Structures are given as C-alpha cells and as structure tokens.
Amino acid sequence: MIRVEHKIVINRPVEEVFAFHENPDNQSKWESGIVEYEQTSEGSIGVGATFREIRIFIGRRIESTTEINEHEPNKKFAIKTTSGPIPLKGTVTFESLNGGTEVKVLAESELGGFLSLAEPIFKRTMQRQIEGNFANQKDLLEAQG
Predict the structure, then answer these.
(1) Burial class (CB in 10 A: 0-12, 13-18, 19+), 107
(2) Which of 30, 46, 54, 145 is least surrounded by Cβ atoms within 10 Å, i.e. has the fewest?
(3) 76: exposed, middle or buried (C-beta count within 10 Å: 0-12, 13-18, 19+)?
(4) What does the pLDDT look like over 92-121, one tens digit per residue?
(5) CA 38 – CA 52 distance, rounded (Å)
(6) Which domains, and CATH codes, for the chain?
(7) What's the pTM value of the predicted model, to 2 decimals?
(8) b/e string for 18-33 if b means 16 or more Cβ within 10 A?
(9) Which residues, 6 or more positions from 118, have their beta carbon under 8 angstroms from its beta carbon?
C-alpha cells in the first residue's frame, strides 16, 4: 500500500480554496500531467459525480475514471478511481486558519501485478507531484488576492 500525505497553507479564505479545488475547469491549471479532464455525470459536483481523465504519469499516458465519494463543502473532498490501471483514493480536507486555509492531502494506492515492483518509484513520484500540484494551487489562488 502506498500512502502519501501533504499539508500546505493557502493564504485565501476556505470558501475560495474549496471552490477552486472542486471546479473541474481548474484541474488542468494546477494539476501537472493532466491532458484532459471532464465531468461525465449530469448535475452538480457532489457525491456520485464522475469524471474522465487522461494524464501523463511516469512517462505513461493513463486514462481513468473517478468518482466523488465524499463531499462536504468547505471541509472535505474525496475521490476514488473506478476504472483505470492505477487504483487510487484521494482525500483533501480544508480548515480555516487565521484567514487562510490549511489543506491536507492523503492519497493511497494499491498497485498490483508488475506495477507493484515499481512501488518505491511510484511513491516518490506521487509525493513530488502532489507537493508541486498544491504549490501550484497556492500560487494561483494567492495571485488572485
């Protein structure tokens, strides 16, 4: 089991940070490797909403579908992959902190088959990407202020 955690403080109100994070149109602005990202379900963003994504990860083009499995506005946003080569669960929590927002990220993956041999590389790459992605999100949001 791969488990990656990260924490960052974004100097913007929690409502702004959460709204930016959950908006699918922003995904490619802050998350590296995203080639395509689109909502595939009808309706608003919330539990049960599904998305199709194509990303480049460790030099490979990966297509997967994800589903929101937890959604508490301004508090928590969680997804899981429902199809694709890499099973992943991700939870992001948001907490108001002195006018800013503390964002905590937890990503977990269970690699199988030949991919399990690459777990150490996968974990390091995933850690670097998550740190970079949320630094991007911080830069974008703080530049708006």
Answers:
(1) buried
(2) 145
(3) middle
(4) 999 999 989 999 999 999 877 666 666 888
(5) 5
(6) 2-31+72-144 (3.30.530.20)
(7) 0.91
(8) bebbbeeebbeebbeb
(9) 58, 111
Integer Cα distance of 19 and 131 in angstroms: 20
Provide the β-strand partners of residue 71: 77
> Which residue, among 49, 22, 33, has the nearest Cα to 103 in the 3D structure?
22
Dist CA 135 CA 139 (whole Å): 6
Q: From CA 83, how far away is CA 50, in angstroms rounded?
A: 11
Q: Which amino acid, 32?
A: S
d(CA 25, CA 42): 15
